[in-house]
Amino acid sequence: MEHNRFFPPHAGVRLGDLAARLGAELVDAAHADRIVRSVSPVARAKDGDICYILSRKMRAELETSEATAILCDRALASLVPASIAVLISPRAHTAFALAGELLHPSAMRPEAMTSASGGVAPGAYVDPAARLEPDVTVEPMAVIGKDAEIGEGSHIGPGAIIGAGVRIGRNCTIAAGVTVQCALIGNNVIIHPGARIGQDGFGYAPGLKPGMIKIVQIGRVIIQDHVEIGANTTIDRGTMDDTVIGEGTKIDNLVQIGHNVRIGRHCGIVSKVGIAGSTRIGDGVMIGGASAINGHISIGDGVMIAAMSGVVADIPPGEKYGGIPARPMRDFLRDVAEVAMRASAREKKKGGKDE
């Protein structure tokens, strides 16, 4: 693949060493000294690139590939041209992700926007009552509030605002323009540019006259270890309880999470999802893009929700739901098929009348 200035190729890793790091099997030991420097799509790969394939549908892409190596399942190895080294892995996608992390570590989290490296940059403000452990970087125009605590190895990007009393763990990245208030954040957390964490939630009571009265929001946001939060995502603090994001959960860009929501461990939430207040989401839940989740409901462990679904009621553990309103996937697909059949029948009937 043609490389750009933002993510230059690695200095080089021996294929034999890479296979060992990935737990993959190098089919031909004679290829062990080949050097890989980057990752690439199969069809555009050049010498020094490593790619992966997951199905026979990618056979045509292999015809134009000049990759150094391909990761794949053993059943697909025969598709790879003889000129390309083969690494066998039962989880080729996972192995490819690990290879990418090794070859392009700088792309794994937002990097510094300025040349600041360690310490507090000129132009940043750190309140005298804030406490920073060693090796914390604070870039220009960032503000660290009173009694805030930031752990060793963490990085605060330019223009980020860390509110009074906020605690941020070790090896965290808080990117440019992020606002964090009323929050406790664990270790190894990544928050991408423009995210808003800990602002008050949307809560109002009917007024005595026409209009609404604001309900006080005095809870917190608790973000556990190894969470990643996408750009311009918003997470409201709790009303009187806490909003909680469980360990290892990954949240895409432009997601809205309301007050008192509790999300379990290792969930995946895709762009433009909206989760209303006081919803409980179990561990390992996957929510497709642009889905809307009603408030005060429970979604069980391991649930999968299709993109653009509207979830209005509880979902038992392990289920797959889709549609508006969301229902078991088999029912949703049957309804979609029935609508398509009726539309086709109407078109045929209309065509017969025209004749």
From TrEMBL:
Q: What is its EC number?
A: 2.3.1.191
Entries under InterPro entries matching the protein:
Hexapep, Hexapep_transf_CS, LpxD, Trimer_LpxA-like_sf, UDP_GlcNAc_AcTrfase_non-rep
Q: Which family does it belong to?
A: Belongs to the transferase hexapeptide repeat family. LpxD subfamily.
Give the source species.
Shinella zoogloeoides
**What Gene Ontology molecular function terms does this protein carry?**
N-acyltransferase activity; UDP-3-O-[(3R)-3-hydroxyacyl]-glucosamine N-acyltransferase activity
Catalytic reactions on record = a UDP-3-O-[(3R)-3-hydroxyacyl]-alpha-D-glucosamine + a (3R)-hydroxyacyl-[ACP] = a UDP-2-N,3-O-bis[(3R)-3-hydroxyacyl]-alpha-D-glucosamine + holo-[ACP] + H(+)
Q: Which NCBIfam families match?
A: lipid_A_lpxD, PRK00892.1
- Cited function: Catalyzes the N-acylation of UDP-3-O-acylglucosamine using 3-hydroxyacyl-ACP as the acyl donor. Is involved in the biosynthesis of lipid A, a phosphorylated glycolipid that anchors the lipopolysaccharide to the outer membrane of the cell.
Q: Where is the UDP-3-O-[3-hydroxymyristoyl] glucosamine N-acyltransferase non-repeat region domain?
A: 33-101
Q: In which pathway does it act?
A: Bacterial outer membrane biogenesis; LPS lipid A biosynthesis
Q: Which SUPFAM superfamilies match?
A: Trimeric LpxA-like enzymes
**What domain of life is recorded for the organism?**
Bacteria
What are the GO cellular component annotations?
membrane
Q: Is the Lipid metabolism keyword given for this protein?
A: yes
| Biological process per Gene Ontology, one example term | lipid A biosynthetic process
State the Pfam families in the record.
Answer: Hexapep, Hexapep_2, LpxD
Q: Which UniProt keywords apply?
A: Acyltransferase, Lipid A biosynthesis, Lipid biosynthesis, Lipid metabolism, Repeat, Transferase
Q: Which residues form the active site?
A: H259 (proton acceptor)
Protein name, UniProt field: UDP-3-O-acylglucosamine N-acyltransferase
Record note on quaternary structure:
Homotrimer.
Q: Which PROSITE patterns match?
A: HEXAPEP_TRANSFERASES
What's its top-level EC category?
Answer: transferase
